[in-house]
Design brief:
By secondary structure, this protein is an alpha/beta fold. The chain contains 21 helices and 14 strands. The chain is globular and about 75 Å long.
Length: 556
């Protein structure tokens, strides 16, 4: 089979293209080898991507050693943390699809043969995996690795999210500004993806679980020399995939996607995985919806527990055996014959892996809990589903009834919380923050962090059509579908209504009669758009609902 680059670089018809490459110093020898894209999200504005310049050099060395020609290009990659709490958060989820589109455009325009994808952060990793599935070329993902934990605060190593929690403590008068400043200086001791099990590290772990990253590589710290070794080996391995003609869809398919869902349940991963795995599945031509998460949540044990659900961190997870140790415990549940970028199966890759720290990674027979770290809730308030994270919610909050306090934006909720207008037993409803209504489905990160600092996270529930950070803990139910902007029942909740959250029963209910719900829905009027120009306006008109992965549907 002719490689894509061979079709546009042969003489004499394609001497024009050869001349353009030669203007940059490429030789005839270079142009006769497979042309391997090194797709790099490096920037100096995103800590998780800051180390990728050096990682790219190691990848390129590996490609050259194995007989390929590396060609690199950049893609955007935004920082959820820097975008938190202001209009920038509305732009974060939309970057995922922009990244996938940009990679498609560059790869197809230049007819490159394969790609090594370099990204670490929340939307970058799924966007890159979406592109890999869409293009169906040989591909490997390499991440930059997580940060180490910071100074000790409240009995555990601090991280970026700890600073937000400290602001709640400061607002409550429990710590001084000097203590906040000390934490600001010491929470993030070096670059890398944030050191807790947020969406970034969840998706890097799931990329390995999908078989798209080398075994054991997901949580190697950014500062560890093994990170560069893995990068070089990934450069060599992409050439093996080219030689063997192993393309992305031979790895990303129904069986490996099911493995990723199982793995997410077993580690108590981010709620955002319920957006990203279905979106990757869509690009791989696989039908996978919230029903799979619901089924697997009930049948997958929670095996690994780490920050924010426990004191130990993702670096500790790596030292304890990481992804291979968890997958080894799950072999009776997962599709062990799924192919990986090593050319071997998942089962072959993890056969010898064992937990080195049972205080973090437990066994299949003795898990943290018998059901998974996520739960899909249905009911008259979420006919198409909603997502909770029992791994980050104290068991006393798993069955909750509270009086609704309704806000039509995150900002309005934050103002009420900081003003002391939210009390124990309340159920905060934040609506019109879904994919269409936000637009962009921003994270309700800040309200939960403030409540945590104010001591309300164990007594107040937050229900929203927006989403959450993987670092959030406390009473949370998000991704309520249909969203309020699409006329979902969340749009007609009123102050004083009683809301029930029952995680064991997988139920989210508005305790109002069906007749009253229908009366309110008939009287509801869709509010005006918040943003009427630019990319977010376009995004709002194209995006599907959260239960469908907030995809931009592009197939007939």
């Amino acid at each position: 089979m002719t490689r894509p680059s061979e079709r546009i670089l042969g003489r004499p018809d394609w001497s024009f293209q050869r001349a353009l490459y030669k203007s940059m110093g490429y030789t005839d020898r270079d142009l006769g080898k497979p042309m391997i894209a090194v797709v790099n999200a490096h920037s100096t504005v995103v800590p998780g991507h800051f180390p990728l310049d050096k990682i790219a050099e190691a990848v390129k060395e590996g490609i050259k050693e194995a007989g390929g020609t590396p060609v690199d290009f950049g893609v955007i990659g935004a920082c959820d943390g820097i975008a938190q709490g202001h209009i920038g958060m509305r732009y974060i989820l939309p970057t995922r699809d922009a990244i996938a589109n940009d990679i498609e455009l560059m790869m197809m325009a230049h007819q490159l043969d394969a790609m090594v994808l370099l990204g670490s952060c929340d939307k970058t990793v799924p966007g890159m995996l979406m592109a890999a599935a869409r293009l169906d070329l040989p591909a490997i993902l390499v991440n930059a690795g997580p940060m180490e934990g910071g100074i000790v605060f409240n009995g555990k190593e601090a991280d970026a999210a700890t600073v937000s929690e400290a602001l709640g403590l400061y607002n409550a008068g429990k710590i001084t500004m000097t203590e906040v400043e000390e934490l600001e200086d010491g929470a993030c001791p070096g670059c890398g993806s944030c050191s807790f099990l947020g969406t970034a590290n969840t998706m890097c772990i799931l990329a390995e679980g999908l078989g798209m990253s080398l075994p054991g590589s997901a949580m190697i710290p950014a500062v560890d020399h093994a990170r560069l070794q893995v990068a070089k080996e990934s450069g060599r391995q992409i050439m093996s995939l080219v030689e063997k003609k192993i393309t992305a869809r031979q790895i990303i398919n129904r069986r490996s996607l099911e493995n990723a869902v199982r793995l997410n349940m077993a580690i108590g991963g981010s709620t955002n995985a319920t957006l990203h795995i279905p979106a990757i599945a869509y690009e791989a031509m696989v039908e996978l919806d919230l029903g799979v998460f619901e089924e697997f949540s009930n049948t997958t044990p929670h095996i690994a527990k780490m920050n924010p659900a426990a004191a130990l961190n993702v670096v500790d997870f790596h030292k304890a055996g990481g992804v291979p140790a968890v997958l080894n415990e799950l072999l009776s549940l997962i599709n062990g014959d799924a192919l990986t970028v090593t050319g071997r199966t998942i089962q072959e890759n993890v056969a010898a892996a064992k937990s080195k720290n049972p205080a973090l990674i437990r066994t299949f027979k003795d898990p943290w809990s018998k059901t998974g770290g996520l739960a899909i809730l249905h009911g008259n308030l979420a006919p198409n589903g909603s997502v909770a994270k029992p791994a980050a919610i104290l068991p006393n909050m798993w069955q909750f009834q509270g009086v609704a306090k309704v806000f039509d934006s995150e900002d309005a909720a934050i103002q009420a919380i900081t003003a002391g207008k939210v009390k124990a037993g309340d159920c905060i409803v934040i609506r019109y923050e879904g994919p269409q209504g936000g637009p962009g489905m921003p994270e309700m990160y800040k309200p939960l962090k403030i409540m945590d600092g104010m001591g309300l996270s164990e007594s107040v529930m937050l229900v929203t059509d927006g989403r959450f950070s993987g670092s959030n803990r406390g009473g949370l139910v998000g991704h309520v579908s249909p969203e309020a902007a699409a006329g979902g029942p969340l749009a007609i909740v009123q102050d004083g209504d009683l809301i029930e959250v029952d995680i064991p029963a997988r139920r989210l209910a508005l305790k109002v009669s069906e007749e009253e719900i229908q009366r309110r829905l008939a009287a509801w009027q869709k509010p005006a758009k918040k943003i009427t120009s630019g990319y977010l306006n376009l995004y709002a008109s194209l995006v599907e609902s959260a239960d469908k992965g907030a995809i931009l549907r592009h197939r007939d």
